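Example record used in the benchmark description.
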Amino acid sequence: MSKFLTGMTAAAMVLVAGCSPEIDEATNENASAESAATASLARIDCGEITVADLSVFSTAGNYKGVKKTLTDSCYLIRHGDDLMLWDTGLPAQIAGKGAQTDGGFTMTLASTIDDQLRAARINPADIDIIGISHFHDDHTGQMAGFPKAKLLTGKGDWSLVTAPNPDARMNIAPYVPWAKQGGTVEAVSGDHDVFGDGSVMMLDLPGHTPGHTALQVMTDKGPVLLSGDLTHFNENYANGGIPTWNTDPQDSLASIQRFKKLAKDTNATVVIQHEPADIGKVPALTAATE
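Model output (structure tokens):
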């Protein structure tokens, strides 16, 4: 699945200046665990990625020769009558087809988001919003299956996707319903209060890509922070490790520091979306709807 790797290569060619903003008072207020507004959160299985040599996730050259299987998790947020997907995983085309290898990455997808929603008695056409952490293929793979949903994506990423001459190695196909066919899209700049009540916040955390975001969800059990690709596994999160293809290492470090401070200040549950040890922190969609 070459687009997964070339998406990362294209991202690595982009140089972005500036640093991630500090947490402002409004964000702190919205992040408060005392907020009355909450949303429910459930996990969707969006595939697995086995990495043959984990050193590509470290500009310091750590993890040489280490093999690790990462999860690819997506999430369903319910806010009143509104349904929101956060990230859409690996492409539906590989579902049920076994291992798909591209260089040092081997990918599998057992079931599509569409099938998992239907199994939970949710009509996929009822998804109102899709929030995308960043433009890499393992996060945008199934988004085109929800063309009627409003798309929320970081402005820095949207600018690359819609550039007059985007890099040929960038896979813009998942964005076609919004970039070419008139779908509703909001290119988010800075932190974004999705529902206007502080219950779901897209957090501006650039560095992995220019418009990378993470998500904060205020649940009835407290705040949950979904990492996007701010970090990929526990060791890198603890050590502030930066993948070799990140667009801006300085922004990446600033974003990790901001995320950690927010997690500490709000006593949030941190979910690293690619870390297998973290996926059990959020109930699976089928379990959440039983």
